[in-house]
Each structure stands twice: as structure tokens, then as C-alpha cells.
Design a protein that fits this description.
The structure is a single chain. This protein has 241 residues and is an alpha+beta fold. The protein contains three helices and 13 strands; from the N terminus they run ααβββββββββββαββ. β10 (178-183) and β11 form a beta hairpin.
């Protein structure tokens, strides 16, 4: 009886170990179904290929691969950082990724960003889905500046961000002007770009004096350097046009 119990214990441990490995191995890879649907990885989990800092030829050294995630290390010299930018521009797209933030941290996911030396920062042209420690960063006290919000434009409802140190799964889908932001499986923002209502919204925001903000129909995907530690993984995109 003892031998049988030991055998089953060993079997269970083996299954658990395999399951843990299998789960881990799923990060930063595409399933057969995703490949068939046209999804592409923007981060392979092992290299920085496909990314560079905004208006620079290469990605700053504050960005690194950390245990299968794209990690920005805060606190370094400004010249070692910069927003991480995709090599390619995207129009209609469906983006998926996961993020986790450091205590009191701040970052963001921007899109439709036009890279040009005349724009000092990526946010001059690109709307942003906020990445934030809602319980620690001062921005959390400002409406439309909390995690999941379309930054300074629309409050995310419901608020379902996970605590610091836990991974949040988000999606940004833009198709024929219709924008959806998803956080942890829930549609938290829905709006339509380039309408009169959209233009009014921008005119009443902090972006009102940026003449090219959210004007481009194609642009780069950007992960923001806000000076705080942040991690991204499972970054994948499907073009819809």
C-alpha cells in the first residue's frame, strides 16, 4: 500500500511539473489557431528584435528581456530609456498583451503614434491606454488617469485592474474608427475616433494644443517609458485591414 501511495505521489508531482512547464511555455508563442487567424508576435520573449526607442535607431539599455518579459528598468539615465516603439506602423488592428507594474509605477500603451523628429514625445500623436498602480501613483487621484482608462479622455468602466505585481491582460482593437479597450476579459472603453464628439473630447483634454494628436490613421505601437519599472509580455497583433 505504501508503494502504491508513493507511486501516485510521484505521478502527481510529475504531472504538476509538466503542467507548470507547459503553462510557462505558452508565453510569447502563437497557437496554431492564432497563426491561422493572422496573429503576429511583437515580442519573442528572448530578444529585443522589432523594437527601438522613439526617434532613435535602437532600443535604450534601460529596456531588457527579463524572464520572458520586456522590462523597463526605472531610475537610470534618461538617455538609456525612451518609449519602446514597433518597427512597423499599424492602421486597423487588434493588439493583445499582458503587463504588470511596480509599486507606485506608471506606464502606458500608445497607438497610432507617428515617429518623426518634429515630435519630441510619442504622446504628441498617440492615444494611450493607461498602465498604473492605482493604489500608489498620484495619477490615480485624477479622473481618466487610472489603469485601463483611455488616458485623459475616457474613464474605464468597470475598474478591474489587478494589484501591483500581478499580470493584467489587455486588448486594444481599432477597426474603421471604432475603438475598444479590454482589460482582464472585460470591455472597459468603447468609442469612435475622428467624429465631432471625438474632436470635442480632445478639445477638452490636456491634448488640446497638440495639433496632430490622434490625427493619423496609421502609426506605431508604443510602450511608455515613464521612469518606473514595468514589464510586458505576450505582445501580439493582428492587422484588420
Amino acid at each position: 500500500m505504501k508503494k502504491i501511495s508513493a507511486f501516485y505521489v510521484l505521478a502527481l508531482l510529475t504531472i504538476f511539473s509538466y503542467s507548470s512547464f507547459a503553462q510557462k511555455s505558452k508565453d510569447n508563442v502563437l497557437t496554431k489557431k492564432e497563426k491561422k487567424q493572422g496573429w503576429q508576435l511583437l515580442f519573442d520573449g528572448t530578444s529585443l528584435n522589432g523594437w527601438h526607442s522613439f526617434n532613435k535607431p535602437a532600443l535604450g539599455s534601460s529596456w531588457s528581456v527579463d524572464n520572458g518579459s520586456l522590462h523597463f528598468k526605472g531610475g537610470g539615465p534618461r538617455e538609456n530609456g525612451g518609449d519602446a516603439v514597433t518597427e512597423k506602423e499599424y492602421g486597423d488592428f487588434h493588439l493583445k498583451l499582458e503587463w504588470k507594474i511596480s509599486p507606485n509605477g506608471n506606464s502606458g500603451i500608445m497607438f497610432l503614434v507617428k515617429e518623426d523628429p518634429k515630435y519630441r514625445y510619442a504622446y504628441y500623436t498617440g492615444p494611450e491606454m493607461q498602465v498604473l498602480d492605482n493604489n500608489g501613483h498620484p495619477d490615480s487621484k485624477i479622473q481618466k488617469h487610472r489603469a485601463g482608462d483611455l488616458y485623459d479622455l475616457i474613464t474605464s468602466i468597470p475598474e478591474n485592474v489587478k494589484p501591483v505585481g500581478e499580470w493584467n491582460q489587455v486588448e486594444i482593437k481599432l477597426e474603421k474608427g471604432k475603438l475598444e479597450l479590454w482589460q482582464n476579459g472585460v470591455n472597459v472603453v468603447a468609442t469612435t475616433l475622428w467624429t465631432d464628439d471625438w474632436n470635442t473630447m480632445i478639445a477638452n483634454s490636456k491634448f488640446k494644443n497638440l495639433e496632430d494628436f490622434a490625427k493619423f490613421k496609421e502609426g506605431r505601437i508604443v510602450l511608455q517609458d515613464h521612469g518606473d519599472d514595468v514589464w510586458y509580455r505576450n505582445i501580439k497583433i493582428r492587422e484588420l485591414n
